[in-house]
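Consider the following input, taken from an annotated entry for CopG family transcriptional regulator / antitoxin EndoAI (Tindallia magadiensis).
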Amino acid sequence: MKKPEQLLTISLPENLIRELDHFRKREHKSRNQVVKEAIHFFMCEKSKTLMHEEMKNGYEEMGTINLALAEIGLCIEYALLENYEDEMPEWKEVPW
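Applying the prediction step yields:
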């Protein structure tokens, strides 16, 4: 069952109306159809753009977090290595 539609009145500059009429004639559609499709297309594209921006920000944030975790891990490994070398005196005697 088709949902009831509501009337929406908008004001457009004359040049945009001329473009709209030229486009609708070429597409064999009504003004109403073209405007509906244009609004739908705009909202879909805007949603995609916003989602891509959110994903980009998320990846950048994760990159910062991953770098911090890697630095912490490196510090821990370095401390463990120092501790290991301190407990193994024969390592200090080997001339490299």
